[in-house]
Amino acid sequence: MARFHIDTDMGVDDGLALYTANRVLGRSLTNVSTVWGNVPLATATRNALVFRALLPGARFDVVAGASRALDGNRAGASHVHGEDGLGGAARTLDRGLLKRIASTEAPPLDALKTGRGKVTIIGIGPATNIPALVARHGKANVARIVLMAGAFFDPGNITPHAEFNARSDPLALRLVLALGVPVTFVPLDLCRKIVLTRATVRDYLKTSRARIVRLLVESHMAYMDHYIAWEGLDGCFPHDAIAVLAARWPGRFHRVRGRVTVETRGARRGKTALTPDPRSHIDVAMGGDLKWVREFLATP
Known about the structure:
Layout: E1 3-8, H1 12-24, E2 29-34, H2 41-54, E3 61-64, H3 78-81, H4 95-102, E4 119-123, H5 130-137, E5 142-148, H6 164-168, H7 170-178, E6 183-186, H8 188-191, E7 196-197, H9 198-202, H10 204-207, H11 211-231, E8 235-236, H12 239-248, E9 253-262, E10 272-276, E11 282-288, H13 290-297
Parallel strand pairs: 1-2, 1-4, 2-3, 4-5, 5-6, 6-11
Antiparallel strand pairs: 7-8, 9-10, 9-11
Helix pairs in contact: 1-11, 1-12, 2-4
């Protein structure tokens, strides 16, 4: 049976990605690991446990991974995602739920339970955990790694040169590419072609009033305030949910195969570059059936 493992730094768009994964992967989503990035590790882990509790039918294991990059970097993005990683919406959660979550300890990454069959790893945070996850699952058992990372022709979103996840731990990203496991990048170049407007997200409540849907809507409101100042957009790019869809339905996306390089130092830290090469084990999603993606994400 095909299995999926999500590695996440559990900011606002990661929450939508987990919700989407629960919709389209169901029980085949067997593991979620948390990593530093949008928020500190403890907050990311708390949010993953909250989503597991609220998502209907969710049974995935949650394990806690790295709290900093391989070179010690810990610069986060709480100014974008809120101190709680949920745009401030954690304050609306039931106190009983939060008390139960606080008493739940996520085991460390090296206690990850692996299963039979091939696994696809979906990385939607810094790549720090990914080499260890491949080792834990067994390289031969990893079918593909799908990474929300990189900016190849577009400007970055954390510096003019780099996308946040790639810049956060470029050394780990290099290690992932050197493993030889098939890798698909879902970069800013693709994500910026797909917009969720504020009105679209608010309309989720016309479809469902479930607590998890209300949490998604509430968390996105403050997140989108940042986009107005940052991108001049009253909406957001659903980066991580797109990566989930690309992992589940790769045939709906146009991918360019090639060699990818990652710069690790200086002002261009995290800069990714693509050289087309049909012999490479790496591809970069650049387009595809984006009308379908937009319509899928417009309805929860």
